[in-house]
Amino acid sequence: MWWGGRGQSFNIAPQKEEPEMGLSGPKSVEGTGMPEPRSRQLGSCLASGGLPGEQILAWAPGVRKGLEPEMPGTLICSNLRVTFQPCGWQRSQETPLSSEYDFSLANIGRLEAVNGPSRVQLLRPGSLLKFIPEEILIHGQDFRLLRVGFEAGGLEPQAFQVTMAIIQARAQNSPTQQYAGITLSKAGQSSDSRKPPIPLLETTEDWETERKKQAARGWRVSTVNERFDVATSLPRYFWVPKRTLDSEVRRAFGHFHQGRGPRLSWHHPGGSDLLRCGGFYTASDPNKEDIRAVESMLQAGHSDVVLVDTMDELPNLADVQLAHLRLRALCLPDSSVAEDKWLSALEGTRWLDYTRSCLRKASDVSVLVTSRVRSVVLQERGDRDFNGLLSSLVQLLSAPEARTLLGFQSLVQREWVAAGHPFLTRLGGSGSSEEAPVFLLFLDCVWQLLQQFPAEFEFSEFFLLALHDSVRVPDTLTFLRDTPWERGKQGGQFNNYTQVYTSGYSQPLAGNSINPQLSVWDWNLRYSNKQILQFRNPGYDPEHCPDSWLPRQQPSFMVPGPPSSMWLFSRGALTPLNQLCPWRDSPSLLAVSSRWLPRPAISSESLADQEWGLPSHWGACPLPPGLLLPGCLGPQIRLWRRCYLRGRPEVQMGLSAPTISGLQEELSHLQELLRKWTPRISPEDHCKEKNPNTILSQSR
Amino acid sequence: MGGAPAASAGGRCERPPLLPRVAASQGGGMLGKGVGGGGGGTKAPKPSFVSYVRPEEIHTNEKEATEKEVTLHLLPGEQLLCEANTVLKCVQEDSCQRGIYGRLVCTDFKIAFLGDDESALDNDETQFKNKVIGENDITLHCVDQIYGVFDEKKKTLFGQLKKYPEKLVIHCKDLRVFHFCLRYTKEEEVKRIVSGIIHHTQAPKLLKRLFLFSYATAARNSPATDPKKHAVMFDTLQDWCRELERTKGNVKYKEVSVNEGYKVCERLPAYFVVPASLLEEDIAFFQGRGIPIWCWSCHNGCALLKMSALPKEQDDGLLQIQKNFLDRIYKTIHRPPYETAKTEDLSSNFLSLQEIQMAYSKFKQLFLIDNSTEFWDTDIKWFSLLESSSWLDIIRRCLKKAVEIIECLEAQNMNVLLLEDNASDLCCLISSLVQVMMDPHCRTIFGFQSLVQKEWIMGGHCFLDRCNHLRQSDKEEAPMFLLFLDCVWQLVHQHPPAFEFTETYLTVLSDSLYIPIFSTFFFNSPHQKDMNVGRESQDSQSKPLNLLPVWDWSVQFEPKAQTLLTNPLYVEKPKLEKVQRKGTHFKHQRQLSLPLTQSKSSPKRGFFREETDHLIKNLLGKRISKLINSSEELQDGFREFYDSWHSRPPSYQGLLLPHLEGPEIKVWAQRYLRWIPEAQILGGGGVATMSKLLEMMEEVQRLQEKIEARHHSQEAPQAEAASPQRTSGRLSSLFPFALLQRHSSKPVLPTSGWKALGDEDDLAKREDEFVDLGDV
């Protein structure tokens, strides 16, 4: 393999780099004449932006197409990523990665080489390029598209090389690989420290702080899983009822699927608790004491307990994966669907249908949590996919603080990352057949909420896009591992982790040295400050600010004795249960899957009506402050065009539709208007002064 | 009406806590069964734990209702025709039904339901109240279909009835659905009201019997507002003259008055504009047919023209005459100074009226929902149902056609001649669309109203026939104007800052189509209008009738409500700049898409233009033909024009093109979904953003006023101008329309369902006026 091994011949470290090295690689092997000045420029460009351990495998000058105007630059393939570096663009030290020009190898969904109108070759790992490409197209799994045309004139071998290098690098790339040794520059740190950091929930302190924030007085942080011996997929710490002993927790958790017993997700300020747990491990044979422990944990001190069959009415993993694949096919720029058949094709993907079911279910559960003081337990067999989705959505719907930037990031960190959502497997990293982008489905749901309630969210569509694009970038471990245990192991949490980081980094953070690990929430790795500013929704105008909860009287917490009412929530209705656990006498209703039973006709009446005796659309009064009930009708569930149709040139520009990011533009018009008004008036002013800004501020 | 009675009846034992009241999940069919009052309730009531209404209760309700009864507001000239008491208006709420007792009346203007709930309105809710049409009013012209429910079966009602229904379902053209239960109404009243409604809404009518005339006669002495304030009416020579000047078309085109008094043609307006070199006697030759009539001139001098086709003749001699005539005409307009013209035949190769009518009938069915169960059922298949109606596709095709024509005018420097049989349907649509996209003036409220006045009213669009206002023939019906509004909505939705008006403006304009106090949409041609108004005036008094145009919005809305019609974010035209060219102003726009905004003129475009010009010249040697239309090259030219426009940042004061791709054409949700309670999102929707913006605008304005006051050294501490009123509570996404619906569906139960269950006695103490029509 003539291109193999070549990459090892030169290794670009970020600090010292001679331009000749970047040049010598291709030259020594190929001996092709290369225009000197361009190479030099390239060399210095690369020198400024390489990551430790990054090796440039091949590069070629090219033109980025599909955008107007076309952008000349260089296509670079390294062992970590594919980058299109526009002429004159300098990678800033503060953002070692670029959200705009980098394609991580794991993100490459489809690679095509084109020569002329008829010759198109789909390049799979290991395939051999049959011709010299005029153009290559890289379709990102995140729906981005990189389309690079190569210049002719003696440079064709380079085009060939870079394409082959991409094929090769993609084949060798392991999804678990992480960009090593990325550090945040000091500049980045200082700006970061102004904002409150996102708690990574790897310490008891984090959990304790979070618990206090939620005012969950009946709960405590349990350290029973500190050594991951209850379950590796569970976080080291979690919340259990105050009066439950750790020994009881351990015993009770043994009777749940993979040891994922009931834990608190969120404490509603009105008094209800939202819990999540895995399926009952029905094969076990618990004794009376164990059953009592399980029951009291599910009951969480409430007299009213509702078990929610999470999977009921929701798609399964295979459904989600299939829908996502179909959606990606539909959204390809060359998708062959005719314009007038677009809608039915979109319906055929079922993606929007799944989004709708998730929202509808989440809306029902938030009604359950809000309408009465009770314990609501989300139960999914694995407790690692849809429980997280549902519990996060419920919190977004009912807790205004979850809709802030900080709150949302901690929500994802808690309900997805710490709760052990198998990101790597679900996003296709581990090669197992259980790939299903549940997290992306969640982001779509959040986007739906964002567009339905544009004033209730502090973060913008741009932020959601950034999060969407981050799931396959191997800069941090956040999305690259399946369990907290693996993440901790890799991140050096249990070893002397400071070695991983370059010197000088951990010192200034002495006060916070417990957790120097970088997470996806360190946005300035990939986003410039200017971009980060756009994470904020300018239209954020919450009807109820986060701290304006109407304090309701908290009922006396621990209710002695068994719960007085127990329900199973499925198919949009509550069914009474005789017992919470399936072991005592008859098989539980939960053992029977209710997925295939039809929803009763009555269910067109929403749960909100049933619970409050009021129609959901009635008006402001019956809805408690802060609760959002999303619309789930066909016309209300929309396609996230700015995400899925990004590969299409016509969508990339010129959409001033009234979305949240459109609002930003509109706001700038507004300011412009203001500026226009002011000078029009000031000429009339006699005292020949003043800065319009001071006028405005004075008149306040 | 797929209901499952068993589910609701058996609800108690299965799911006790959820059902404070049994809800009938089905539609009208279940109504009236078993309450045991008036009509033929023969079935024994099923046992159920909630019995809401007992016959004696009904009796008391009736008394109370009459006490609280609201008086009927009649417009000047409006006459009460028939009425019925103790009618129950049923309100659909998800799956349950509630009723409000009241009086159903039918006048020569509207059908109105007088319930007792009007007093419940608070400020917010009245904010967008229509002064002419109340919330429970249906103008006779707004009625689309009437159904009767007989023994739970829904049938269309028309003509003489042998049997009278127990329930009346009225589908309106603005997509409201009303259910009136007549079970407790006296039989003779039922007969009178049902046959009255059917007769007055469905029987063919004479033009002279339109309420328009009674209203104008009765309101004769009210002060007339000057219609010129709201739009250019185009009923004088000067109006046309000014329009020519505005568009700089006056060099090559002239206004003519040959048709004064409609001597030449009744289809044409009294004044219009033709090419300057056209002989005036030619206009009369075929009664105005075959004459290129000027619509609008583009900044580069190219013009949009329209022409109605010559009558179809069999006779060879006549055909020869026609041919010679056309040759002469074509020669006039193909000679310099006129640009070469491309003929766009809209009668063939494009949409037919039937197609449009069919698509719309299918489309509107998606929104005329009798009960919510039905709605949820269609919901899963929403997209494919939508697609199969092909309404959105028709919108796309219209927009596309307009873009094609713009490409000719703008990029190829050609005149475009629209050809249609009567030049009054698709011609109006396409030519107005072209102007909305090309002429920023048409995107102001005044300009848009003038445009409608010029292209639709003076263009002789047959509103009477197309809206079927007189119920004379269904065959002529086609929602052309609505299609136009929907196309404009797509533009407004895609480029909001470019328009001075909002989607709410378009929605209320579409509603005004059915309000017969405005003359604008109730004539087939200016000739017909003038004839009818003129004769009337000679009969009675010397003063001619003062017919109201729709354009004065103060007739329908209070000033506060009118603010919802204007777009606070409209990017106004800078006063100084005259030339409107893309990319020259508003540099602040779209700074967000940084690396891409560099606008450069595409060299390819210039090259291409020459090439096609060459091609056209070659082709024109032979004859204008459809060949050009279908030519491959032109398709490419269109694509290139479209792509290159969209690849650059839009200038809101220049040319504006819509996105035409599949995902970009959307449902005009405000108009079509506004009456469907399920479609409401509390505190959500674009309204939330809008209200925030409005608030900011008000703030800015207030500051401006303060500055101004300071500058004029008016030290007097003015009482703080009422600070911008924060609308209290969360608005619904369907605002401003949803609130109108809201108070009528006032809940019965303020208590939680749990309590109701625990204490069944509460059920008896339920509010009186509201009656649940459960499956009792």
From TrEMBL, chain A:
This protein's name: Myotubularin related protein 11
SUPFAM superfamilies noted in UniProt: (Phosphotyrosine protein) phosphatases II, PH domain-like
Recorded name of the encoding gene: MTMR11
Entry-linked Pfam families: 3-PAP, Myotub-related
Any single biological process term in GO: phosphatidylinositol dephosphorylation
Ranges of residues in domain Myotubularin phosphatase: 201-644
Region of interest called Disordered, as start-end residue ranges on this chain: 1-39
Family membership: Belongs to the protein-tyrosine phosphatase family. Non-receptor class myotubularin subfamily.
Domain of life (superkingdom): Eukaryota
Annotated GO CC locations: cytoplasm; membrane
TrEMBL record, chain B:
Keywords: Cytoplasm, Sarcoplasmic reticulum
Subcellular localization: Cytoplasm, Myofibril, Sarcomere; Sarcoplasmic reticulum
Transmembrane segments: none
Stretches with biased composition (Gly residues): 26-42
InterPro entries, A to Z: MTMR12-like_C, MTMR12_PTP, Myotubularin, Myotubularin-like_Pase_dom, PH-like_dom_sf, Prot-tyrosine_phosphatase-like
One Gene Ontology cellular component annotation held by this UniProt entry: sarcoplasmic reticulum
Ranges for region Disordered: 24-48, 708-728
Chief location category: cytoplasm
Stretches with biased composition (Low complexity): 715-724
Subunit structure, as described in the record: Heterodimer with lipid phosphatase MTM1. Heterodimer with lipid phosphatase MTMR2.
Protein name, UniProt field: Myotubularin-related protein 12
Protein species of origin: Moschus moschiferus (Siberian musk deer)
Lineage: Eukaryota, Metazoa, Chordata, Craniata, Vertebrata
